[in-house]
Amino acid sequence: xKLLTPATQTPLAASVVTIGTFDGVHLGHRNxxxxxxxxxxxxxxxxxxxxxxxHPATIVRGxxxxxxxxxxxxxxxxxxxxxxxYCYLVEFDLARSQELASDxxxxxxxxxxxxxxxxxxxxxRFGSKRAGNVDLLQEMAGDCGFVVESDLLVKLxxxxxxxxxxxxxxxxxxxxxxxxxTLIRRLISLGSVELAxxxxxxxxxxxxxxxxxxxxxxxxxxxxxxxxxxxDNRVLPVxxxxxGWVQYQQSRYMAAVSVGTRPTYYPKEGNRLIEAFLxxxxxxxxxxxxxVGFTHFLRPQKTFSNSKELVDQIELDVEDVKVKQR
Length: 326
Ligand SMILES: Cc1cc2nc3c(=O)[nH]c(=O)nc-3n(C[C@H](O)[C@H](O)[C@H](O)COP(=O)(O)O)c2cc1C
Ligand SMILES: Nc1ncnc2c1ncn2[C@@H]1O[C@H](COP(=O)(O)OP(=O)(O)OP(=O)(O)O)[C@@H](O)[C@H]1O
Known about the structure:
Elements lengths: L1 E3 L10 E5 L7 H17 L3 E7 L2 H5 L11 H11 L3 E6 L2 H4 L3 H12 L2 E5 L14 H11 L2 E3 L5 E3 H10 L8 E3 L2 H9 L3 H8 L3 E8 L4 H6 L4 E3 L11 E9 L2 E10 L12 E6 L10 E11 L7 H18 L2
Parallel strand pairs: 1-4, 2-3, 2-5, 3-4, 5-6
Antiparallel strand pairs: 7-8, 9-10, 9-14, 10-13, 11-12, 11-14, 12-13
The structure holds flavin mononucleotide (FMN) and adenosine-5'-triphosphate.
InterPro entries: Cyt_trans-like (IPR004821), FAD_synthase (IPR015864), Riboflavin_kinase (IPR023468), Riboflavin_kinase_bac (IPR002606), Riboflavin_kinase_bac/euk (IPR015865), Riboflavin_kinase_dom_sf (IPR023465), Rossmann-like_a/b/a_fold (IPR014729)
EC number: 2.7.1.26, 2.7.7.2
Protein name: Riboflavin biosynthesis protein
């Protein structure tokens, strides 16, 4: 996949484009991206994912942007996995937020990318004051030489919708859930990583560098942990202990993952850490990049009266991880 920006690119003569922030690259997004790829291949022209960074809400809504499911780098890696030919990055700023929707269509879709097919969800909004929508795209399509496809909404029904309704009671009577980044952020922040998986089509994960902690885990407790760094604007699962995995280079290890402030040692205020104990691993990970995946919530964080009690519990957690990953 090639990364294009308005500043660096040579215009494309023809393409199939899909547009969005695509935080999480969830099942709804995948449907659009895979469709764009298939349409492009069939027409013999490249597929392009137009995306925005930072998240438009950071500019439009000031300090109230949502915590994100993915870093920008993770989003790109997920596009790449889906086989999209180009990612066209709109570096979102005040000027971009004031651009008229029709100017975005003429300048970016037609001028820069030569769009022949534009694929978006039915509720997609763009341009100044979010005035651009599917109707506007349809109106401009004939003159601009593209067709619009917007009938690919992904909803989940049945058992998954019922399970989401149990976690988020206001959705209980809906009978269906539309997959969205907003919904997945809520599920993750409540610790419902199993349900987040169902809507993402993959495990929720965080990629980061391993940083040092207090050095207590390996020496005193016998459970060394890789503390993974993360950006402040990330959505994190609620404090607790999770079954999961760590991908390091080409290998994947089962892991017991702790999210929390280590209340046993910092009863008042501790930094919020994501720490993974890798099963069947012996080595030095400091400064290395790892990917930490979350598969199941096991239990909340607890304040133990001493290290021995904590170690006894971690032993049980590790057994639980093995059962869950069987
Ligand atoms: C599986 C697992 C479960 C954990 N559960 C708790 C917990 O319930 N309460 C707590 O205070 N710390 C918990 N921790 C975090 C430990 O306190 C922390 O790993 C240890 O103090 C080492 O910290 P360090 O990496 O800064 O040396 C857990 C860690 C792991 C790996
Ligand atoms: N469930 C879905 N099915 C199909 N397309 C979707 C779905 N959800 C979003 N889209 C489309 O994917 C593109 C990217 O959308 P966007 O990044 O706004 O995702 P979102 O999940 O709706 O996010 P948010 O919840 O933050 O509004 C848009 O074209 C949007 O209409």
